[in-house]
Design goal:
Layout: H1 2-18, H2 25-38, H3 43-53, H4 58-71, H5 83-88, H6 119-124, H7 143-150, H8 153-166, H9 178-189, H10 191-202, H11 207-253, H12 264-284, H13 296-302, E1 324-330, H14 336-347, E2 355-361, E3 365-367, H15 369-374, H16 377-388, H17 395-406, E4 414-419, H18 431-440, E5 443-448, H19 462-465, E6 471-474, H20 478-492
Parallel strand pairs: 1-2, 1-4, 4-5, 5-6
Antiparallel strand pairs: 2-3
Length: 493
């Protein structure tokens, strides 16, 4: 029994992880300890106990509550009529109780046509069942038949969960697989044996046996509907989030210019999550001063008062000089979609790179740093694209404006990131200004959303600009952007 409880808990934790609730192995052990103390008898008590050890944030708590309610939403797998009603009220229960669900609790076959019925059940009901009336029934022989007739909710629910594990229901990916997994679970529960028994009972000469065959057929059909519901719930629990993850993985690789408007919100969530991971990674890099390589001179100097006894150890630490970042984004035409997520990504890294100044241009350059400080991120991006995306692209004019506005602020701690396709409409590229930026800054990175094969075609000036940047990279997807900004932070630390 303990093994079954452990499997149930691990399945629940897998569902939590699938819903982006981080659960460590240590927390899993804590949850198992809590389960041993409280058990499954009191559902509310179990939920409160697991909530103490599994979710860690308000958002995770909300997800935990929804996942728990869905995972442990066990319904009575029996027909609605109780055992006594099934035996004594067969003729009177047929008017409508089976409607909508097709469970057929009543005794008459004609009154069940309004509900959902499987093809298999419809085939077996092709012949109108004889009216046997209430009375005694024989005892079922099959294991599943005994479970159905005993009205054992707990045992039947546990058996359904075990059969779902045998059928690997957690691997369901698309909704059209619902019928396949329903059949697999029913087979694992013993459908074949039960069906043979029903056929034998209906062909029997004894009234008691035929009456049992009718009742088992009704309860089997009701169980099939319950299994379908269970499969649907598990699909929503497992595959819905998995499908979202698959979509997220695709969106990280696809060109941002091909992202549809309906996916912008999901892309935004991915950007924020990627930025938080980088923040966590590089924030930890600053906390190495209590471990690592021993600073021998400093340790000896600070322990002279102890006659040379080494009481206080001092470690070598690297001073992290956070970079000043100037982001210059071309927001004209098709490049605007890339600039949207570039600005979003940089501003999500405020904890690691607090000195970010953003500029947008299509021809004249404008600083939009204060615009982002005063407005919500989404509103600031929308206003930037609306106000500065018009006009003919002119990189030479944008560089001239940058030199006039803030070239004096560029020093050896500055990283300049330029996002654009370098298509200058055959105007003056002003490579002299870019060379000045290259000489004064620590790094100049150029992120071009176009494939490298097109960098030197048409009015593109990348051949000239590449000579005056430290790195020129193709960057047209979130995975590219994540790699570029991660490299920027690694170089800073």
């Amino acid at each position: 029994m303990k093994r079954t409880l452990d499997r149930t808990l691990t399945s629940f934790i897998a569902a939590l992880r699938n819903a982006d609730v981080r659960v460590s192995p240590a927390e899993t052990l804590d949850a198992m300890g809590a389960l041993e103390l409280v058990g499954y008898r009191d559902r509310a008590f179990l939920k409160d106990s697991l909530a103490l050890v599994l979710p860690k944030t308000a958002a995770e708590t909300e997800t935990f509550d929804a996942t728990f309610d869905q995972f442990f939403a066990f319904e009575d797998p029996q027909p609605k009529a109780d055992a006594q009603g099934a035996q004594g009220e067969g003729d009177d229960a047929g008017d409508g109780q089976g409607e909508g669900r097709g469970e057929g609790e009543g005794g008459g076959g004609k009154g069940q046509g309004g509900g959902k019925r499987s093809k298999f059940a419809a085939f077996q009901d092709a012949e109108e069942e004889e009216e046997l009336g209430p009375g005694e029934m024989a005892s079922p022989r099959s294991t599943l038949g005994r479970l159905l007739m005993d009205a054992s909710v707990v045992e039947l629910t546990v058996r359904m969960a075990e059969a779902a594990r045998e059928a690997k229901l957690e691997e369901i990916r698309v909704f059209t697989q619902k019928g396949l997994y329903t059949r697999k679970i029913m087979d694992a529960m013993g459908l074949a044996e039960l069906t043979r028994e029903i056929l034998d009972l209906r062909a029997s000469a004894g009234v008691r046996e035929r009456r049992l065959g009718q009742e088992l057929g009704k309860r089997r059909d009701a169980l099939r509907e319950r299994v379908r519901d269970y499969v649907e719930q598990q699909f929503l629990l497992h595959a819905d989030v998995t499908g979202r993850r698959l979509r997220e993985e695709l969106l990280q690789k696809v060109k941002l210019s091909n992202v549809e408007q309906r996916n912008f919100r999901l892309i935004g969530e991915i950007v924020m999550r990627m930025a938080k991971k980088l923040v966590a990674l590089h924030s930890r890099r600053r906390k190495v001063f209590k471990r690592g390589q021993l600073n021998v001179p400093r340790t000896l100097r600070h322990n002279m008062s102890y006659d040379g006894s080494l009481f206080d150890l001092h470690w070598k630490s690297v001073k992290v000089d956070r970079p000043k970042v100037f982001a210059i984004c071309d927001v004209s035409g098709s490049v605007a979609s890339y600039a949207r997520f570039m600005l979003m990504f940089l501003y999500s890294l405020e904890e690691v790179m607090p000195k970010v100044r953003a500029f947008a241009f299509s021809s004249d350059l404008a600083e939009v740093t204060e615009l982002f400080e005063r407005n919500r991120l989404e509103d600031a991006i929308a206003k930037t694209l609306r106000d500065y995306s018009g006009g003919s692209t002119d990189y030479g004019q944008a560089f001239a404006d940058f030199r006039k506005r803030c070239m004096d602020d560029v020093d050896n701690r500055t990283t300049i990131v330029i996002l654009g396709d370098a298509r200058n409409n055959y105007g003056d590229p002003r490579t002299d200004i870019l060379k000045e930026m290259y000489d004064r800054a620590k790094r100049v990175l150029w992120l071009n959303p176009e494939p490298r094969s097109t960098w030197h075609t048409g009015d593109a000036e990348m051949r000239k600009y590449t000579a005056y940047v430290h790195q020129a990279l193709e960057c047209n997807s979130l995975s590219h952007l994540n790699r570029v900004v991660g490299g920027l932070l690694r170089a800073a630390t």
